[in-house]
Amino acid sequence: MNMDLVPRIKIMGFIAYKSPWIHFKRNINEYVLYFIRSGELHIKEEKNHYVLRKGDLLILEPNLNHEGTAKHVCDYYYIHFEHSDIKAVYRDDMLALANYFIVEHDQSPFIEHKPTVNGIHPNHCYFPKYHTISDKTRFNLILSALNEMQKLYMRRYYNRSLTAFQFMQWLVELSREYFMDELKRNDRIHSKSVVKVNALLDYIHQNYQSKITGKDIELTFEGNYDYLNRAFKLVTGQSIIRYINAVRVNQAKQLIETTPLSIGEIGYLVGINDPYHFSKVFKKYVGLSPTQYFKQVWKSD
């Protein structure tokens, strides 16, 4: 899905069938997402049969025949949506795709423009047609997110647009979790390391404006800094400090390019208070001092 465009949610809700029920036959021109809270939903899409149970997610595609195959009790959420730039992509190398988005490029400040790899567009969101959420905590988080989306959707008017934005965010999170699961299943990286490093990535991007010390990281992630640093380097290819500085320099470049702020103010906003140290770090990553970079950017304009 092209995430530059917002989907249109046509209808969403929750259904609880306490008596055995079979899904009706239909062919519609929109996508339908199902998430099962309990029970079973037996359904086929053309010739493909699915038995959906607690924690299962399925996206049915438009203009295909959908039909129930057996009666069962079932509680599930549904979201009918349209999008002008979405399509099915069939790949047999999911590990390579997960490695590309999570290990090599996820949130990386070292790659400004991700190259297209084997027909995969780096700015699109890839999420599974069928997936099982087996972790209890993640299952409950999804239920909470769907409940919030439904409440917002029922308020109508502008809240329908807000629901669509929340839905997009949820799909991005689903995509990331799916790729992380793929890495764990294939032992690409020890599962605990993947979880720790991805949490640390989020922490850095949320707190780079402040001073981040090794002690802060140890306390936040309840682990030895050297161990965390080794795991971080295994996943990202960079040490924690180098990554933090790269994030700060990238943000500084954006501020230089888009604001009239002074170099000192920009250094402060990205978490480097000492102007001399900010200039030194910036030049190390960019090859130019902040002042030289400013002159280069604004001269070209």
Concise overview:
Helices cover 48% and strands 19% of the residues. It has 301 residues and is of the alpha+beta class.
Looking at this protein, list some descriptive labels.
301 residues, single chain, 8 strands, 19% strand, alpha+beta, three-stranded antiparallel β-sheet, five-stranded antiparallel β-sheet
Describe this entry's structure for a reader.
The protein is built from ten helices and eight strands. It is α+β, with helices and mostly antiparallel strands. Helices cover 48% and strands 19% of the residues. Helix 4 packs across helix 6 and helix 7 (240-258) runs parallel beside helix 10 (290-300). The strands form two sheets. Strands 1-7-2-5-8 form a five-stranded antiparallel sheet, covered by helices on one side.
The proportion of strand residues reads: 15-25%
Mean pLDDT: 86
What is the element string, with H for helices and E for strands? EEEEEEEHEHHHHHHHHH
Which structural class fits the helix and strand makeup? alpha+beta
Largest sheet, if any? 5 strands, antiparallel
Distance between the termini: 34 Å
Sequence-ordered SSE layout with sheet pairings:
Layout: E1 8-21, E2 31-39, E3 41-45, E4 48-52, E5 56-60, E6 66-70, E7 72-82, H1 94-104, E8 130-132, H2 136-154, H3 158-185, H4 191-207, H5 214-221, H6 225-236, H7 240-258, H8 263-269, H9 275-286, H10 290-300
Antiparallel strand pairs: 1-7, 2-5, 2-7, 3-4, 3-6, 5-8
Helix pairs in contact: 1-3, 2-3, 4-6, 7-9, 7-10
